[in-house]
Amino acid sequence: MGIGASIFLIVAGAILTFALDLEVGGVDLDAVGWILMVGGVIGLIFTTLIWGPRHRSTVTREVDPTTPSSEYRRVEERSDI
């Protein structure tokens, strides 16, 4: 579940819980709203735990052009945290 879907569930649950005062076929919309909000919060936590600690890195090496068996190339090391 992504961050957008989690926020959508939280907002939809808040609307059902706090903004509407309806009874639909014996279904308690307050309980459904709370369930959606809890599911959205859990999804948001898992999304940030799974996707939050990612970092990208690039390795930089410069090969000596005087050595006969290697080509000259430059690779840069960068870490985006």
Short description:
This protein is mainly α. It is built from 2 helices and 2 strands; from the N terminus they run ααββ. The chain starts with a helix and ends with a strand.
Residue fraction in strands: 5-15%
Number of strands: 2
- Could you tell me how far the N terminus lies from the C terminus, measured between alpha carbons in angstroms? 22 Å
| CA-based gyration radius | 25 Å
Task: Figure out the total of helices.
Answer: 2
Number of domains: 1
Q: Indicate the overall shape.
A: rod-shaped
With strands numbered from the N-terminus, the spatial order across the biggest sheet is: 1-2
Q: How would you describe the overall organization of this protein?
A:
This protein has one domain (about 5-80). Helices cover about 50% and strands about 5% of the residues. The protein contains two helices and two strands, in the order ααββ. The protein has a two-stranded antiparallel sheet. The protein is rod-shaped. It starts with a helix and ends with a strand. The mean pLDDT is about 80.
